[in-house]
Design brief:
CATH topology of the largest domain: Aspartate Aminotransferase, domain 1
Structural class: alpha+beta
CATH architecture of the largest domain: Alpha-Beta Complex
Order of helices and strands: HHEHHEEEEHEEHHHE
Largest sheet: 6 strands, antiparallel
Number of strands: 8
Strand content: 15-25%
Strand order of the largest sheet: 2-3-4-5-7-6
CATH class of the largest domain: Alpha Beta
Shape: elongated
Distance between the termini: 44 Å
Radius of gyration: 33 Å
Helix content: 40-55%
């Protein structure tokens, strides 16, 4: 049986609904009063203007009616914010040296195979085997992301080892749905192992006398100003987004 001697605030849905309706009615009452007051003031001001009187009495400083008029006509200037859109190369150049080492090791692993070519774009580094895209690399924050043309459910590639994620639901990675995040030296070694595994499935052949490239030096650090001048960082102006509701 329910206790009829309930003390304190009843937080049932029914009581909350009653409180909301009460608050709404209270606000409606205040709104109605304010609307009536505004209507009366507008009529009074109209009468004053009709009789050629701008204000009840002259004053040295702007009076309330003048302030209201300014407030009604003056609109605040829109706030703008400067945005910097960094390309993949810009992100790589300004990333930590460790991340550059991981990138260099993985890229050289791809470069060591015949018929594998890479194309660096604004978004990332894309690797092709012949005409087919087999991998992509991007930089997000302090993380290097590697997308491969492998099956995330391949029994040879245990999730407990590689911690892979499926990215094929994104159009850009439909052909390379196997995603891993490279954040450590061990992670980079696993990534190279996956490159070799992918190459074996493609029956790719190793280059003879392959000489690795030092991509760490190639992507040496540059300032924002230098990268902007080279067009590797795009600067735009936009409206400031307010998160106040």
């Amino acid at each position: 049986m329910a206790d009829n001697n309930v003390t304190g605030k009843d937080l049932t849905m029914e009581s909350l609904a009653k409180e909301i309706r009460y608050a709404y009615k209270q606000n409606q009452s205040i709104y109605t009063q304010l609307s009536a007051r505004i209507d009366a003031l507008e009529k009074e001001l109209a009468e004053l203007k009709k009789n050629g009187v701008a204000c009840a009495a002259p004053c040295e400083e702007p009076c309330e009616c003048a302030a209201e008029e300014v407030a009604a006509t003056e609109t605040p200037a829109e706030e703008t914010v400067t945005r910097y859109k960094k390309s993949f190369v810009a992100k790589l150049k300004q990333s930590d040296v460790k991340l550059k080492v991981y990138y260099s090791d993985i890229k050289n692993a791809f470069d060591s195979y015949k018929r594998v070519n890479s194309t660096v774009s604004l978004q990332g580094d894309r690797f092709n085997f012949g005409r087919d895209t087999i991998a992509k690399m991007t930089v997000v924050g302090k993380t290097l992301k590697l997308y491969l043309a492998l099956d995330v459910n391949d029994p040879e590639l245990k999730e407990t080892v590689y911690h892979q994620k499926f990215a094929g639901d994104q159009k850009a990675y439909e052909a390379t749905p196997f995603l891993i995040k490279v954040k450590s030296e061990i992670g980079a070694k696993k990534a190279v192992r996956l490159v070799d595994y992918l190459a074996s499935k493609l029956e790719a052949v190793k280059e003879k006398d392959f000489a690795p490239v030092d991509y760490v030096a190639e992507y040496a650090y540059e300032t924002d100003e230098e990268l902007i001048e080279k067009g590797l960082i795009k600067v735009t102006q936009g409206k400031k987004i307010s998160l106040k509701f």
